[in-house]
Design brief:
It is built from two helices and no strands. The longest helix has 15 residues. The radius of gyration is 24 Å and the shape is rod-shaped. About 50% of the residues lie in helices and about 0% in strands.
Length: about 50
């Protein structure tokens, strides 16, 4: 999302304008979770790391 700026005579007015801008654009928050591959090498590494 690009930077959104708002200016007005008071902080309250600037916040109102900013809220209006955000409501017009309706930003969407997206998250992505990636699971690491469960390979034999990964499992062996984890076993050895615990014993250190």
């Amino acid at each position: 999302m690009p930077d959104i700026k708002s200016s007005a005579a008071t902080k309250e007015e600037a916040l109102e304008k900013l809220i209006q801008l955000l409501e017009e654009r309706k930003p969407e928050i997206v998250t992505l979770e990636i699971e690491p591959p469960q390979t034999e090498a990964t499992l062996e590494f984890l076993k050895n790391a615990r014993s250190l």
